[in-house]
Specification:
By secondary structure, this protein is mostly helical. The chain is 62% helix and 8% strand. The protein has helices spanning 13-32, 39-51, 56-63, 67-79, 101-125, 127-140, and strands at 54-55, 83-87, 95-99.
């Protein structure tokens, strides 16, 4: 039987994860603010720089986000000219996302800021603990839930 506190929240995995995500996310957002990016936007642009053009659906899967939320996150990046979103030549229902030269430039500008906050976290949290945290969080994605299944 799962452990539950008197108020039902102290041992809540969801609350603990969201608190830590908001805390760390705000730190990354603050660090990336000088280049006009938020942490999620940086992650999207960085993945596009690594993978090249891809569909919105595939990008959402890589980032572990539902397709609708990914599409919403891409809109401001497209407005700023950091990505393009075009219909697929193969499947007109699919949309292909491509990093623009300006988007690549923004990723390269943001990378030292990201590296600095990454290094600060690992220094204060501990390199080994940070590695275990990433491994544990990656394992969460393998627990069998299908949060975006239709």
């Amino acid at each position: 039987m799962a452990a539950v506190s008197m108020d039902g929240t102290a041992l809540c995995n969801n609350l603990a994860l969201r608190k830590a995500a908001r805390y760390l996310g705000a730190a990354y957002d603050k660090a990336l603010a000088p280049v006009g990016l938020r942490g999620t936007q940086f992650s999207i642009l960085q993945k596009l720089s690594a993978y090249g053009e891809t569909t919105i659906t595939a990008l959402a899967e890589v980032i572990a986000m539902d397709r609708t939320t990914m599409a919403s996150n891409l809109k401001p990046l497209a407005r700023e000219g950091l990505v393009t979103i075009e219909p697929s030549a193969v499947d007109r229902r699919a949309r292909i996302v491509t990093l623009t030269p300006e988007g690549l430039s923004r990723v390269q500008e943001a990378l030292p800021l990201w590296r600095a906050v990454q290094a600060r976290f690992e220094e204060t949290f501990g390199d080994a603990d940070a590695a275990r945290l990433r491994a544990s969080l990656e394992a969460v994605l393998e627990t069998g839930f299908e949060p975006w299944a239709e």
